[in-house]
Recover the amino acids of this structure.
């Protein structure tokens, strides 16, 4: 069912791109920008090199439209010191679905961008040309990043006609990691829900490879949650070093939406969170007297995980081995000395 909904969504975006990219059949109607960028799905920056002289106050603006919804963004005239050229510039704050605050609120879909100017007493409308995006070299950040506050993804896309448009994708339900606070006897995971309502959630730690589950104590304050790491139960679930993932599970019959949300740092422009946010190994002294070495970290995909090992058990084994070795060496030495004394006598 989820894949079926994704296919419908992709087809709708494809149709809306065709509508947003339509022109009158003339490539002259597309204007090549000096600069066009969108950062973190929020800040739109545009700079245009006008084909002719532009006078202040001629009403030049950028029109962002989808159906009957329209937003008008005035274009400011900037004169360049070198060469006496001109630029029409604009900066706008965009807001995707579910966002609060000032800015242009764009619903899920493809939005058309049109530059409106006055030339020779006549109103002219042009689209913005967008060349095919070349493949990016390996960089620490991705080309398109979601809004870190809401999770909505807004990006500049190229239509078949070469016209630039804005594609808005509504946020997906997430359990977003905010921070991890270590203590001497454990640690606390701070997070928040994105695009899904609170209430009816429980948390658990899942051991990789065999799926052993340990309940996790969770506290809630609206969409924000805190998880107390059950290091004692995790380390006591089996001998050796294991990796544990964390997730939120919805209680049966409590609301709509996904039944499971993995905890992680999902709303980021970092390509490899594991390399960008390194974390050290720590030794925790639990109230029960155990020593546990734990490594709370992010994986390459952004998932939050904890690697833990019970050092108390290893220290007991090491001590028993040391004592056994001492006893063995003492017994061997005693036998050799007795044999030597027997031969001498």
């Amino acid at each position: 069912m989820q894949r079926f909904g994704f296919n419908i969504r992709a087809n709708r975006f494809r149709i809306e791109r065709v509508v947003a990219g339509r022109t009158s059949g003339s490539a002259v109607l597309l204007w090549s920008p000096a600069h066009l960028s969108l950062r973190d799905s929020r800040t739109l920056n545009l700079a245009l090199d006008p084909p002719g002289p532009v006078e202040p106050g001629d009403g030049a603006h950028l029109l962002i439209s989808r159906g009957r919804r329209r937003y008008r963004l005035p274009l400011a005239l900037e004169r360049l010191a070198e060469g006496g050229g001109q630029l029409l510039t604009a900066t706008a704050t965009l807001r995707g679905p579910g966002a609060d605050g000032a800015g242009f609120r764009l619903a899920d879909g493809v939005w058309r961008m049109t530059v409106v100017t006055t030339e020779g007493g006549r109103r002219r409308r042009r689209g913005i040309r967008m060349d095919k995006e070349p493949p990016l070299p390996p960089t620490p950040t991705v080309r398109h990043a979601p809004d870190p506050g809401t999770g909505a993804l807004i990006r500049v896309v190229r239509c078949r006609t070469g016209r630039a448009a804005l594609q808005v994708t509504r946020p997906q339900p997430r359990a977003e990691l905010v921070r991890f606070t270590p203590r001497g006897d454990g640690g606390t995971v701070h997070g928040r829900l994105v695009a899904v309502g609170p209430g009816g959630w429980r948390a658990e730690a899942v051991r990789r490879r065999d799926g052993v589950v340990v309940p996790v104590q969770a506290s809630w304050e609206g969409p924000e949650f805190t998880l107390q790491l059950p290091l004692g139960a995790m380390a006591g679930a089996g001998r050796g070093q294991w990796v544990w993932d964390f997730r939120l599970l919805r209680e049966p019959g409590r609301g709509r939406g996904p039944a499971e949300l993995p905890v992680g740092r999902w709303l980021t422009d970092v390509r490899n969170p594991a390399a960008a946010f390194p974390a050290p190994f720590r030794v925790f002294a639990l109230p029960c007297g155990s020593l546990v070495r734990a490594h709370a970290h992010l994986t390459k995909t952004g998932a939050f995980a904890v690697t833990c090992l019970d050092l108390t058990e290893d220290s007991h084994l090491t001590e028993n081995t040391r004592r056994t070795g001492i006893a063995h060496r003492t017994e061997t030495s005693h036998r050799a000395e007795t044999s030597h004394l027997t031969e001498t006598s």
Q: What stands out?
A: Residues 174-313 form one domain. The chain has two domains: 2-131+141-169, 174-313.
